[in-house]
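We close this part of the discussion by returning to an individual protein. The sequence in question and its C-alpha cells are set out directly beneath this paragraph:
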Amino acid sequence: MGSLSEYKTVNISHILNYAENPRHDIGNNEIDTIKKLINKVGTQYIYNLAKDIYENGLLGSNLPVLVFEPKQEKYVVYEGNRRVACLKFLNNPDILTTVDKALKQRIENLIKTETPGYSTEIYCYITNEEEALLIMERTHSGEDKGRGLKAWTPKEKDVFQKRLKLKNSIELVIADLTEKFLKKDITQKIKYTNLQRFFNNREVKKALNIDVEDISNNSKREIILINDLVDKAIEESEKKDVSLSRLFNKARDIEDFFLPLIEEYRNDSKNEDKEPPIVKNEDSDILQQIKPEDTRITKGNNDSNKEPDGNNPIIDNDLKLKIDKDENIPSYFSNQTIDLKERIELINEEKYDPHLLVIESKGLNIANGIIQPNNLPGEYIVTYKYFMDNTRELVYWQDSLLISIKQKKTPYVVPKQVTVLSPSFLEIYHDKLDFQHSEKIKALINFLSNENKNGKYSYFINIVSRMFLEYTFRLYASKVLKEDNLSIDTKSKSLQSFIDYCCIKIEQENPKVFVKHIQRGRKDATNKVDILQKSVHYFDVTISNDDIEVMFKNLNIYLELVYEKIIEEEMKPVEMV
C-alpha cells in the first residue's frame, strides 16, 4: 500500500480485528480477539451496537480505518473494531458459538425479526499504520485540549433530542422557562444532571405537573416554585456540608424533601387565590381584608367577641412574637444563606400567618426572610414587621436585630502562571532570531512567553500582542514573500486583512498541513484582531487576555511556520553579484 491513503469499499471477509487493541489483552487469533473485545466492552453494549448497525447500517461520517497487512493479505481494522466485530457475527452468528452463546441466540433472534439495514461491503479509509495510530489517539484521548472529540454536555444532548425528534425533557423545560421568565441560567447554581435527578423523579414530577409536551401550558408561578425548591435544596446541602448528589442520592430522599414543600406551596397558593372578605377592625373605622384562615387568629368565636355585623376581628392579642437575641451580635459569613425566620419565637403558633411577616434590611439582599449569599461585610440592622392584614398598612408587631456579616477567609492558592506565547516558543526561536532589526521581535517574544496574563503587567498584553503580530507578519511578507514596504503598507491598512492575506499564502503552499479545522481556528483568531487593534487605540474598548491567549493558540501553527521560513531565509548564503 505504501504511504498513500485512499477511500475504498472492502468486504467484511477481508478484514481482521486488531489483536493489539488497547481496549483488551492481545488476542491470539481472530476469534480470541473478538471474545476479548466482547468481554471488555460488555455483552449488552455490544448487542446494542449490533442492533443499531443491523437496523441503520454504519454511520457514513465515521469510517473504519484499515491498514493492509501483506503477510496475511488482509486488512486490519485499527479504528472501528467494535463495529467490524458486530458486522462479522451479524453476517455469521456461528462466530459466537465458542465466544458467547447467549449473545449468539439474541443475534439470531434479531436477524429473524428485524429487516437488515446494513451491508457487508464497507466503505473504509485505508492508510498506513502511522496515520492509523494517530487517528486512534485523536479519537480516544478525549478532548485533548481541543485536538480530540468534544463530548456533549447533558443539556446539549437534550437540546439535540428536542431539535431532532421534538422530544423534550423536564430538565430542559425548566432550564428554558427559567431563562424565559426569570432571565436566569439555572445551571449556574445547580448542575443540569441534578435538575434531572430532582424533577424527573416520578412523584415530584407528578406533584409539579409540568407539561413537557407543550411548554406554553406552564406558568411563571411553577418556575418560581421550582427555583425556590432548588434554593432550598442548595441551602440544605450547605447546612449539612454534603454535596447535592450525595444528599439526594435516593428517590426516597428526593421525595421526602421536595413533596412536603410542594404541598405547602400548593396550600398557600389556594388560600392566596381566594378573595378575602372585607371586615371592620374593632379598633378603627378602616375597612380591611383578611384571608379565610385569618379567622383562626381571633379573640374567639363567641358572640361577645363579634362585631355587630357578625365578623371576627383580625388579630388575636393571644398571638405573641419575639426575636431570639443573643448576648453577642450574631455573626455570619458573606457566602452563607441565612434564614432570619429561625430567630422568631411564637406563642400560640397556630394563630400565626407567615404571609403577614416582612423582614427587611437596608443593604442586604433578602428574599422571603432569607439573606442571600454574597453580601458586603459589615453590621446590619434587620427589621421584623408583622402586619394586621394582607394590605400591610397597619403593623401589629415590630422589632429589630443587629447582625454582623464577615468575609469568609479562603486559603490562598498561588495561581498558575499562564502566558500568551508558550515558553517552548521562546526556547525554540529566540536565539535563532539573530539578524538586523530582530531585537524588537525578541523582546516581544520574551514578554509574551514570560509575563503571566493575569500578572502586574496584564494591562499591556494587548499592546504587546498587537505589536508582535504586526511585526511578525510584516517580517514574513518582507523576507519570505519578498514584498517591498510600499506593497506591505498597502496590504496592512487593516491588520486583520493583512494577517489573513499572509496566512492564506501559507495555507496555499501547505494544503496538507493547514486543513479545514486549522483554517477555521485561524479565522476565529483573526476575527478578534480588529477588537485587539481597537483596544490599543480606544480607552473604552477592551479585549480579555483569555481571548488573546486563545487567539495565539489558534495562530500558533502559523507563527511556527512563519519563523521557520524567516530563519531559513536568513540562513541562505548571500549571492555574490
